[in-house]
């Protein structure tokens, strides 16, 4: 591992669940604070950072639809949940001395800027941490797809998916003791073996644009920086 970051610009996908720590709902201030510190640390090391945050700690459209709500309305609520999470992360970053901007795919001018690609790139070039909220702005998508989309749009050289497990396994390691972890996979492996990495739309977008994807355990402090220094943490998904 070298001290110089291996990556110039990254897109980090944090699920809403990542923010709730051990709780069943909402945001754990300790968890969001630690994640903010890790993001600031890699920014200070010279890496340009965009972040897509999910909303599953508050609302998911599919869950609301299963409970009887109109799916599109549920998805709108899910997207607004991601805006709340992004505001919380921006606050956590700025309280710790970083610079953040929230850019939303849904117009909500009193609380966030619109996502405009060139402005987003300008923010990250200036050292600000750009938080991309409201997913893609469209129902029936997920924030995984939004993360793949934004990664390609901002020209990231790595898409990181932060999870609570240390990579992709042959089976669910919580249920199958014989499950083993993959160090590396191809996009087609993920799609054909139906590995639960990201949804298929997100993986296909990464594949079509050659966007390397690394799945790693964000509960281990320092993992983000380890990856930035070239550490082989978690599972890498590429074309070969
Ligand atoms: N969502 C959407 N379009 C998008 C992204 C998200 O409609 O482009 C909605 C959808 O209802 C989703 C919710 O927002 O369930 C929260 O996003 P997601 O489930 O991806 O969050 P995560 O699982 O990452 O916390």
**Quaternary status:** single chain
* Span between termini: 23 Å
Mean pLDDT: 96
Which architecture name does CATH use?
3-Layer(aba) Sandwich
Q: What is the count of distinct domains?
A: 1
Gyration radius, to the nearest Å? Answer: 17 Å
**Neighbour order of strands in the largest sheet:** 4-3-5-2-1-6-10-11-9
Bound molecules: uridine-5'-diphosphate
Number of helical regions: 9
Specify the CATH homologous superfamily.
Acetylglutamate kinase-like
Major β-sheet profile: 9 strands, mixed
Function: Catalyzes the reversible phosphorylation of UMP to UDP.
Pfam families: AA_kinase
InterPro entries: AceGlu_kinase-like_sf (IPR036393), Asp/Glu/Uridylate_kinase (IPR001048), Glu/AcGlu_kinase (IPR001057), Uridylate_kinase (IPR011817), Uridylate_kinase_bac (IPR015963)
Subunit structure: Homohexamer.
Q: Which helices and strands, and how do they pair?
A:
Blueprint: E1 9-14, H1 16-19, H2 29-44, E2 48-53, H3 61-66, H4 71-95, E3 100-104, E4 113-114, H5 117-125, E5 129-133, H6 143-153, E6 158-163, E7 168-169, E8 181-182, E9 184-186, H7 187-192, H8 200-208, E10 213-217, H9 223-228, E11 235-238
Parallel strand pairs: 1-2, 1-6, 2-5, 3-4, 3-5, 6-10, 9-11
Antiparallel strand pairs: 7-8, 10-11
Helix pairs in contact: 2-4, 6-8
Bound molecules: uridine-5'-diphosphate.
Uridine-5'-diphosphate (UDP) binds at residues 15-17, 54-56, 60-62, 74-75, 78-79, 81-82, 135-136, 138-139, 141-144, 146.
